[in-house]
Design goal:
This protein is of the alpha+beta class. The protein has 41 helices and 40 strands. The strands form eleven sheets. The protein has a nine-stranded antiparallel sheet, with helices on both faces. A five-stranded antiparallel sheet has the order 1-2-3-5-8, sandwiched between helices. One of its GO terms (biological process) is proteolysis.
Length: 1318
């Protein structure tokens, strides 16, 4: 018997807890196996347990099972032979599979035949809806046919033909069906209604006979419907059910009841267990089978025969012996010790370090093979600015869009400036090309600007203003191409732009133009949103199909598309295929009728021609045909419109959706994921499920046209395929406030109890009241500056005042933007940062020249004051050596520089009156690397910087550089580099007797200053942000000068941590960091990257230290990571002699055992249950001998004189002994088998994520600690007297022990606890 066939009948007979998740093949092979197994057990039971006087019903059942074994499936000829040769007491059992019915024919002594019919498999709904088992009565209707009729050959022939046809034919009106897309389709996952047997056949027979008075039984039927990612679910075999019904109804007697049936079932299942042992079934399945047999035997009680009980006991012992033997193997594998022979090891020889990964790097470093990359000349390589090109609007916009992909502030400013100047004048005839260019520009610009302007409300406002200007241009082009758009809402509301924070006059004008355009569009609109799921005559797609006058080319394209759709639908082809397959079925059936069975071969033999034809007929199927369009006329129009969407409209719709949904809608809880099966356009997709992707996609033959030709099963909706969400009703939460302003509470008076403790109640109310009223915010600001209720030097107040001043708010037609110049005299009383912001906003709206002049004076005053602060902070920064304070001072310098440079952040028309090039360069130099200055400042200065060739401006530039670089010497005049590097100006210092001329370059946009191509005073970010730099120097800011060491670029101006440090960045990105120190006799040390020692040294000697190599002595010192400049004799040291082995030792002269040596491998095998290879540290040397450290566990093990013994260690680590394997064998704990924890006189279990997987006869459990830096563990002492594990008494210790016990428990273990011996 094949294993898979046997396993299948085990599932059907025993119904174990774990069942298949898909329907198994209940074809001829498996049913034959089931019948043969029952027939064989029936023979054995009759021989061993039935006396001849009682054998009559048993012999009839044996004959019945013989018929089932010989005729699978039943043929007409065999069935007629069975019926014609029936004797009194015989019975025939038939499974009419196509009708889901069982039929039992019983012949009594008077020659009458009783026909019993019943359902073979209950419906899936009844099975799943039942609580527990189904209570069913068997058999169903029973009809007695008189002997005269039953023996009539004509009756027998018609009966056989009727049953044979019903067994092979599925009739549509009894098949289970379901409704989908208005079509009624067959549901193959449910069972067929048996009424053609239980009603039609019995009705016919009732006309020839009369209802039979028989005894019926009630069975508690256990069934299940298991289905997971499968075409058909797993169901219990209907053949097994009808066999049980036939056995139970035939073996009933008034004296014994159902004892004989139950005894045979126990015997049958016991035989199955024997077969299971021979087939080596899994232990859990054998245990379950044994338990079910034991339960059935217990139910029999004293009525079970002694012989049956003895046989069951033998089977139980057989299973118990097998389970115990398997369990002993599990225990033996757990307790098996590794090969341990320390006396055979060359421990001292194993201290030679292999260093397979790091050896090449170390040798190259010692030889000094690294080459320098110091550049001889500097020449900038800036990308050409697209605004300098004059190739037409479209090409210029395309070039700007490409430049923005570099995520450059300058490119973003170029694009914003170009849009502000030229977008209104852009008129082209190629509308589609222009629409695509604008859409691409919106997408690319947003991707870069959103990243660069993140967390800056003002920059975000500029970005949104630019995006809406682009959208207005796109909308105008789309409306010109598709006038129908004017009848529908533009989706963008005029009030959407109110939260924008703007402070330049041109920005106010741009917003006003956008609002005016939106008002006109809304006034013209007749209908609602285009983004809707509602389909009616006002839907845009339907209206466009009706009203649009299409060109000849478009009509031809649509006609071609329709013909393509009709051809793809393949309706005529589907009908032809159905007729062809049906004709083929008739041919096979006619051939089957005239064919005969091959004698000497079983039914179903592939060499039998008749059986082969019958199998072909049963396997004939045809794929369903699904109409591609919805049935409803308007919905079909919408789909056809989406199949050929006008390109301009498609671009407009996609861009509008992205702008309002992805950009202007705040993020919130994501919607439930949609099920999208396929799509035809970017925004047209489907909801529902196509027949072609369901289990209804094929039907068996014969079938009607209605079963093959089905309606469309899909419901079409607009869908965002990129974000996986439906499009309709997506703009309800559209609001840009989260991008442009901080949300402040307006109900402060009602929440006075929530006033923070660090401010007064008056401050609390004033803070919330400044923003109250969109028309009086400037008056509130003026009043507060005069009243000084708030602390105007706080950052929170600065944010509040600037947002109140910059937010544009509502505006009626013809009105100007509000501002209030009365607050100007009081501005000097507030912080410089707030004052500069408010003055810049006033200048944007002021028209009074006196107000403008006062603003100029205040800005210059604020500029010089912040410049003085900057000088003072820079001096403090240079003198400070506290690394924790350096960063805060550096941020203060950058912030003050940004405030000072913010005095230029005004309208471009005011720049000539405020520009001081000396201050511009000086301040830009201090914030250029940190980018703290607002983006708008640099953009405002672009193009407005005075030309350095003018004498006055040259003096300012030279003075600014002199302030930064004390050694600067005036040289030839400044020269501007050619485009695209025209932002750079260059000169050279004058030469002297001992000083050479140096090239000087300055970037007027960002203030970058280079001397001989290198930044002066600060290391490049590529070095200061390098991981090796951060490891040893953190965020420390160093003053640097050119390095005098060969192949090195920079050196520190001062002694740092007692060392002079040299830097050089190689072409491959590696940083070379060398030091010289008088403490080391001037020797040169080089920092080694720790990653080169990966898999060469333990992790604690790789990641937790820094490696300094002395290039003179060829020694590598491992300094602690928390103090990388501490050179001490207490550190580990690696010796790399030119000849001889490379070794490594600690401060006590203990040598490190190589990670690839035999000694290390032997120890790893012993401790692999606790720790991984890279986390073990093995050392040797006096006085402890061989020592193993587990740093993550804070544990150590020591081998002394070939025995593991306790030891005392000075470093305070907890260290404990283990036992040598070949002296004292491991003692099994008695639980947690499958978990490879070390088991000695006590047990340690690390606390981590427990992973477990199923093995053949048990479970494997591991505890994952790979991501833990320090591994907590639970220690349990083995109490041999009470047979228990004693933890530390904590709740976690008890829970963890119980969890491991549950995961690794075994059914044999559950019956007898090895530790507790019970």
């Amino acid at each position: 018997m094949e294993f898979q066939s046997f396993l299948s009948i085990v599932n059907h007979i025993f119904l174990p807890p774990r069942l298949p998740q898909k329907g198994d093949d209940q074809g001829d092979d498996h049913t034959q196996t089931l019948c043969v197994t029952i027939h064989k057990s029936l023979e054995q039971y009759i021989t061993q347990h039935i006396f001849p006087p009682q054998s009559t019903p048993w012999n009839a059942l044996l004959k019945m099972m013989g018929h089932l074994c010989d005729a699978r499936p039943v043929s007409e000829h065999q069935l007629q032979c069975f019926v014609s040769t029936m004797r009194p007491g015989d019975l025939i059992l038939l499974l009419i599979r196509a009708q889901n019915a069982g039929v039992i024919l019983r012949r009594f002594d008077n020659g009458d035949i009783v026909f019993e019919a019943f359902e073979a498999s209950p419906p899936a709904g009844a099975v799943m809806g039942a609580e527990g088992k189904l209570l069913c009565s068997y058999p169903g209707p029973a009809i007695t046919v008189p002997c005269v009729v039953a023996q009539d050959p004509a009756f027998q022939r018609e009966l056989v033909l009727f049953l044979s046809d019903l067994n092979n034919t599925k009739i549509e009106d009894v098949l289970p069906t379901t409704k989908k897309a208005g079509s009624t389709v067959t549901e193959p996952r449910d069972t067929t209604h048996p009424r053609y047997i239980t009603e039609l056949l019995t009705g016919i027979l009732r006309g020839l006979g009369h209802p039979a008075d028989i005894r019926r039984i009630q069975k508690r039927v256990a069934d299940d419907v298991q289905w997971s990612s499968a075409y058909l679910p797993w169901r219990r075999s209907p053949l097994w059910l009808i066999i049980r019904v036939a056995l139970q109804t035939s073996l009933y007697s008034k004296s014994q009841g159902h004892t004989d049936y139950k005894s045979f079932m126990v015997f049958l299942m016991a035989n199955m267990i024997r077969e299971g042992v021979a087939h080596h079934l899994p232990s859990d399945l054998l245990f379950c089978m044994r338990a079910k047999v034991g339960r059935r035997l217990h139910k029999l009680g004293p009525t079970a025969s002694p012989l049956l009980v003895q046989q069951i006991c033998e089977v139980n012992k057989m299973v118990e012996h097998l389970l115990q033997s398997r369990w002993l193997l599990v225990q033996a594998e757990q307790a098996s010790s590794t090969i341990w022979g320390p006396l055979r090891l060359d421990i001292l020889g194993d201290t030679r370090l292999s260093l397979h990964n790091s050896r090449a790097h170390l040798e190259k470093t010692i030889r000094g093979a690294w080459t320098g990359t110091v550049a001889s000349m500097f020449y900038p390589r800036e990308r050409p600015r697209a605004t300098d090109r004059h190739n037409g609007y479209g090409q210029t916009l395309h070039a700007l869009t490409k430049a923005v992909e570099d995520h450059s502030y300058i490119a973003l400013a170029d694009l914003e400036s170009w849009i502000q100047r030229n977008l209104e004048d852009w008129v082209h005839t190629d509308v589609l090309s222009d629409c695509n260019a604008i859409s691409t520009c919106i997408t690319t610009y947003y991707a870069s600007a959103n990243r660069m302007y993140d967390s800056n409300p003002e920059d975000q406002s500029i970005m949104l203003l630019t995006l809406f200007e682009l959208w207005v241009a796109l909308d105008r082009l789309a409306v010109a191409n598709c006038p129908l758009l004017l009848d529908y809402s533009p989706e963008v509301t005029p009030t959407l732009l109110e939260p924008l924070l703007l402070r330049q006059s041109k920005s106010f004008d741009r917003v006003a133009r956008i609002r005016q355009y939106l008002r006109e569009r809304h006034n013209r609109a007749i209908y609602g949103s285009i983004f809707t799921d509602t389909v009616d005559s006002e839907t845009f797609a339907a209206a466009a199909t009706q009203k649009r006058k299409e060109k000849k080319e478009e009509l031809q394209a649509k006609n071609a598309r329709y013909q393509e759709l009709k051809a793809s639908a393949g309706l005529d082809s589907a009908i032809s295929d159905l007729n062809f397959v049906t004709h083929r079925l008739l041919q096979i059936v006619s051939t089957t009728v005239v064919s005969s069975l091959v004698k000497g071969r079983r039914v179903g033999d592939p060499r039998c021609l008749k059986c082969s034809h019958a199998k072909q007929a049963r396997s004939l199927k045809i794929a369903i045909h699904e109409w591609p369009l919805p049935n409803e006329h308007l919905q079909a129009k919408v789909v056809v419109f989406e199949l050929h969407t006008p390109p301009v409209f498609q671009v407009w719709r996609t861009t509008t959706y992205e702008l309002l949904r992805d950009i202007c809608t705040p993020p919130h809880v994501p919607v439930r994921k949609s099920i999208v099966h396929f799509n035809w356009q970017n925004l047209s997709c489907l909801n529902g499920k196509s027949f072609e992707k369901s289990h209804y996609k094929g039907v068996k033959i014969p079938s009607s046209e209605a079963s093959v030709l089905l309606n469309n099963g899909l419901r079409f909706r607009l869908h965002d395929n990129d974000k996986d969400r439906w499009v309709a009703n997506s703009f309800a939460d559209c609001n840009i406030s989260s991008r442009c302003t901080m949300q402040l509470p307006w109900d402060l008076l009602a929440k006075q109890s929530e006033c923070p403790a660090d401010i007064s109640l008056h401050e609390y109310i004033t803070f919330g009241g400044i923003r109250a009223g969109s028309r009086i915010q400037w008056l509130n600001i003026s009043r507060e500056i005069a009243a000084q209720t708030l602390n105007l030097n706080r950052e929170e107040v600065y944010l509040l005042l600037t947002q109140a001043a910059w937010q544009i708010g509502p505006q009626s037609d013809g009105e100007n933007w509000d501002y209030h110049e009365s607050c100007l005299p009081e501005i000097s009383r507030i912080s410089a940062k707030t004052a500069i912001a408010l003055i810049g906003r006033l200048l944007a709206s002021a028209t009074n020249q006196n107000v403008i002049d006062q603003a100029y004076i205040l800005l210059r005053k604020a500029r010089h004051m912040t410049l003085r602060w900057m000088h003072q902070l820079a001096e403090i920064l240079q003198e400070n050596e506290d690394e924790s304070a350096v960063e805060s001072f550096h941020m203060c310098v950058c912030e003050v520089a940004a405030i000072c440079r913010g005095t230029y952040d005004v309208d471009p028309l005011h720049i000539p009156f405020l520009l001081e090039i000396r201050l511009q360069i000086w301040t830009a130099h201090h914030w250029s690397e940190e980018a703290l200055c607002p983006r708008s400042t640099t953009c405002t200065l672009d193009g407005a910087v005075a030309q350095p060739e003018d004498r006055e401006n040259r003096d300012g530039l030279d003075a600014a550089i002199g302030d930064i670089w004390r050694g600067y010497r005036l040289g030839p005049p400044w020269k501007q580099l050619k485009k695209p590097n025209d932002r750079w100006w260059s000169t050279a210092t004058s030469s002297g007797a001992r000083e050479m001329s140096q090239d000087v370059h300055v970037n007027l946009l960002d203030g970058q200053l280079l001397v001989n191509g290198k930044p002066l005073g600060r290391l490049p970010r590529t070095i200061s942000q390098h991981p090796m730099y951060l490891t040893v120097l953190g965020k420390k800011i160093l003053d640097i000068i050119p390095s005098s060491m060969p192949n090195m670029e920079y050196t520190t101006r001062n002694i740092i941590f007692g060392h002079l440090i040299h830097f050089s960045l190689r072409d491959d990105g590696n940083l070379i960091l060398r030091t010289t120190s008088e403490a080391n006799d001037g020797a040169t040390l080089e920092l080694l990257p720790h990653h080169i020692f990966t898999d060469d040294l333990p992790t604690s000697l790789t990641n937790d230290v820094v490696h300094w190599i002395n290039l003179s002595t060829r020694q590598v010192e491992l300094c602690p990571l928390n103090n990388p400049w501490l050179h001490s004799k207490q550190n580990w040291c690696m010796y790399l002699p030119e000849s001889g082995p490379w070794t490594m030792e600690d401060s006590s002269s203990r040598l490190l055992v190589d990670i690839r040596s035999p000694t290390f491998e032997m120890i790893l095998e012993s401790l692999a249950c606790l720790e991984t290879r890279n986390n073990l540290v093995v050392t040797t040397g006096a006085p402890l001998g061989l020592c193993v450290d587990l740093p993550r566990f804070r544990l150590s093990f020591v081998l002394r004189n070939d025995f593991y013994t306790p030891a005392t260690f000075p470093d305070g680590c907890r260290r404990r002994p283990i036992v040598r394997h070949n002296v004292r064998p491991p003692q099994p704990v008695g639980l947690a088998f499958g978990h490879p924890a070390c088991s000695f006189t006590s047990s340690d279990y690390s606390q981590g994520e427990v992973n477990f997987s199923s093995l053949i006869n048990h479970v494997s459990a591991t505890i994952d600690t790979t991501r833990l830096i320090r591994v907590p563990y639970h220690e349990y002492e083995i109490d041999t007297n009470l047979g228990r594990l004693v933890g530390n008494g904590t709740m976690m210790s008890h829970y963890f022990r119980a969890y491991l016990h549950a995961v690794t428990g075994h059914f044999v273990f559950l019956s007898k606890d090895l530790m507790q011996r019970r």
